[in-house]
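Q: Predict the bound structure with guanosine-5'-triphosphate.
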Amino acid sequence: MLCNRLHKVAIERLRTRVPSTARHCRYIHNSDGTISEKRIRNIGILAHIDAGKTTTTERMLYYSGRTDMLGEVKLGNTVTDFLQQERERGITICSAAVSFNWKEHRINLLDTPGHIDFTMEVEQSLGAVDGTVVILDGSAGVEAQTVTVWGQADRHRLPRLVFVNKMDKESADYDACLVDVKQKLSTVPVPLQMPIKEGGKLVGVIDVLSSTKVIWDGQNKGRSYKAIPINDEDLHDQVQEKLYELIDLLSGMDDSLAQAIIEANSFENIKLNLVLDAIRNCTLKQQVVPVLLGSSYKNVGVQLLMDSVLNFLPTPNERNQIYDCFGSDFVGKVFKVTHDKQRGPITMIRAFRGMAKKGSKFITATGGSETIQRIYEPLADEYREIDSFGAGNIGLCAGPKSTVTGDLVVANAAALKKALKRLSIAGDSTEETPDDELLLASKLGLQTTIPDAVYFCSIEPPSSGQQTALDNALREIQREDPSLRIRYDEVTGQTVLGGMGQLHLEIVKSRILSEYRIDADLGPLQIAYKETLDEPSRGQWTAEKEIAGSRQSVTMDMTIYPLVTEDNAERFVLDNSAEAQESLKLIRPRQMAFFRKGALAALQRGPKLGGQLANCAIKLHALTIGRGTADPFIMAAAAQCISSILRNASCRLLEPDMFLEIVTPSEYLPPILADLSRRRARIEDVAQRGSSNKVIKVNAPLAELDDYSTVLRTISSGTASVSMEPNGHSPLNEFDEAQAMRRALGLE
Ligand SMILES: Nc1nc2c(ncn2[C@@H]2O[C@H](COP(=O)(O)OP(=O)(O)OP(=O)(O)O)[C@@H](O)[C@H]2O)c(=O)[nH]1
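A: Predicted complex:
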């Protein structure tokens, strides 16, 4: 029988695991010191807040032998939550990179924050990994932020595993989680395990593929576990049925497995390797998602999750073909910058092609050349020096000074040109433009979109003597976190911060105090409105000046017009009439690139409340640039022209909306709905969850959600919960706009 054969293989497989205490596996390195790509897995851990990412990561580090003790979130001593703020608040703020060896493979793991305010961190991390583990809280299933991070992983086309954690909780429901995964994440779950509970306590899992019980004995912090055959006949038949269901499902997607079944004329006698290969192939194609379970906190199931990472998630060379245009030249992506007190800025780079060595150089988006003075292996805030890191791996580099999170880094200008040429996007021009790298990034589909700020506030140092120190601290934090916006308000003379939420801005303030010893003052939190225009507005502008004896002059004619949708729309276009083309043909590509930059930059500040302009584009009709005019002058002139057109245009405010998912016992539905209607909310859906709960999906203006979580708790006697995420902007009517303007200007 299939099961008997699978038993032997599987028990053998589980028993022959490599001793996990090996701290360094020499045999995974190539002769040049790099690690073979086949032996690397780069994974991100994603989840709704508090599902157990940090706890699971901590177990992985411990079982792999990378750490000697098990950190606990509650005790504030975990490896990945190393910022003081994270330890105090028990949440992940920054994604942290850790690497460890497991069964002769290197796993580089990025633990990401679960709170919506730190979505940008998740986005950057996903650009650096090849697969993800999505963790669910077994008692809560798929939650609002799970759906958000799942969507992010979709955008990066990342194969995934699901780990249903917290299965030790009485209210945990594995089957409900599987239904949730199918319905809410619109994917095909492949359950590889079933829970084993004894006296209500989770003691192990049934490994469906091998039809064995895997039991953790509760000793030595879950290090040891054993696989034993299933003796109970009923249970055995039940597991067998699950296995056949699984093979049946996979055979519809995997030809080799289908062929084997046809040849055997049954599901029996199918080799375990064929089933494993089918799961792997279908996972890589993102047709299915293997689902595992356990309890990280109670030390059950994590080792099998680590095995599955090796078995089912892709190696670096199974993805990332878009970087083939670089051949063997070094190319990588900066997924994070941190500031270490002793080592200065540390740039974390995922290498896709080539090799980076200590002492070598690379170029960045800003065109600057950077030198890698030292390279370290990732272990959160600990550092172990290495000489190089190659394609598929992650390296922490000390030395680069201006690289920012999200930068594409390339060996040198020649390598960049060669890659552009291979992609045939260099055109005939031999002139370097400031947009070369952007062009490449957009061609490769690597452009990172920085989410819009939803809140802003002013920030001031305790004394004017500390302004420079504060500016430097903010610059450093912004290099780490591009979702923090910083601008100088010329009218008030204040520095203004824009962020993803209240928590985001509070954390920035706390970091400035704890890491830079500046007790800065934050002004009141204000909503980040956007602005748009109702109808096209055209204007002409001439900028003339004499700088160091050289006459600078730019004359231009432009229109700003509304767009129906901003998706994929070009925000700067040239008028294609014959007359316009005649005027524009004299402009060199580099001058046009600077002009475009200046014009687009001016769209960052609308005339009403200084909000970013949305849903509009610029058309250039005519441009004349005097001989010898410097590029920065061209850029500034374009910006002045746009600002002047905007001042005369009819603009409107757009307010940020939030999407809310509220889970409440049914009896509290009426008062919650009544309260929402007072908040200008738009109800999208009210559905039943389980026998006694309702789930309300609703869109509401951020301006109306001040203290909402507290109010909800009061209305529902503490039983309802809400998760929120930004959901675009929508126009205000005249009355609400006038009120918003008064509030923003401090007039009420
Ligand atoms: N009962 C139970 N509690 C768990 C389990 N795993 C984690 N926890 C607890 O759940 C809480 C959140 O765990 P974390 O590991 O910080 O979760 P996280 O997903 O990293 O949280 P954020 O990064 O802040 O989103 C902590 O109090 C953990 O001790 C589990 O398997 N069972």
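A: The two ends are 78 Å apart (CA to CA).
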